[in-house]
C-alpha cells in the first residue's frame, strides 16, 4: 500500500494509536466511489503524498472528504504514501488524473520528502540500489527526463529467493518452534541492514539541510522541474493551488529566528507559481509550533483527525 495502489483493494493499518482501513477504488485512488467520465465537470483533484492520502485516519476524516462535504463538490484523492514525490505525481496526473473531469487542482508539497524522493543520489546505498521508483535525470540545462534503475534478471531472481526463504523461515519458527530469540535475531539483522541505508540518507540530510531549510540546488532544480511540468499540464483549469506542508522541526527553527523564505527552493517555487498562474499557500504562515503539535497524530506524525479538519477549514476560508 503506497507508491500508488492496487485497484479495488483494502488493507488495515493498526498501531497503538489507531486502527483504520484503507480502501482503493477502480483506479487505485483512496476512495469508495468510482472515478470515471461520469464525474462532475467541477470536480477537484488533490495531488500529494501520505498527508493527502490520509495516513492513520479513516476515509471520511481525510482532508479530501472533508473538503468534498464542505464544498458540495466531488474531490478526487490522488494522494499516495510510500516515497511518492514530484516525478511520480507528474506521471500520475499526466497518465491518469488529467483524463478525468475536473476544473481545479490542489497540489500539496512536502519539502521534508519531496526534494529527495526522486533524487537517485539519496537512494544509492548498496542495500537499496534496486529501489524501483522513477527518478529524474538531467539531460541539459533546465531539462530533465525520467529513468528507472535497471536490474538484471539474475539479481531479480536472487532477491526474490532471499525474500521467499526469509519469509518461510519466519513462518516455520513461529508455527513449529519456540525459537523466539532466533526470530528476534533475524529481525534485528534485517533492521540493522535497513538502518545502513537510513544513515546514508541522514548523512546527506545533514549536509544539505532539511525540510523547509533544505538547500541542495541539484535536488531543488530536478524536483521543481516536474512540479512546474505538472502545473503547466493543468494550465487549462480554473485554478491551481499549491499548499506547502511543514514539519514540527520547521516551526522550531522558525521560532529561533531562521528564515527559509530566502532559500532557493522557496524563491524558485514562488516563481513557478507566478509562471503557471497558480496560487500559493504556506501552512507555516498560519500556525505556531504549539498549534501544529496538536494537529499531529503521535504514532505517525501525520495529520490527525483534528489536523485534517483544521487544514480543510483553512483551505475553505482562504480559497472557497
Helix content range: 40-55%
The DSSP helix count reads: 11
Record field, number of beta strands: 9
* Residues in β-strands, percent: 5-15%
How would you sum up the major sheet?
Answer: 5 strands, parallel
**Secondary structural class:** alpha/beta
- In N-to-C order, the SSE pattern is EEEHHEHEHEEHHHEHHEHH
Overview of the structural elements:
This protein has helices at 50-53, 63-71, 86-95, 111-114, 153-176, 180-208, 217-233, 248-255, 264-275, 289-293, 305-319; strands at residues 10-14, 19-23, 44-48, 75-79, 104-109, 135-140, 143-147, 239-244, 279-282. The strands form three sheets. A five-stranded parallel beta sheet has the order 4-3-5-8-9, sandwiched between helices. Strands 1-2 form a two-stranded antiparallel sheet. Strands 6-7 form a two-stranded antiparallel sheet. Helix 2 (63-71) crosses helix 11, helix 3 runs parallel beside helix 7 and helix 7 runs parallel beside helix 9 (264-275). A hairpin with a 2-residue loop joins strand 6 (135-140) and strand 7. The protein is α/β, with parallel strands linked by helices and 320 residues long. It is built from eleven helices and nine strands.
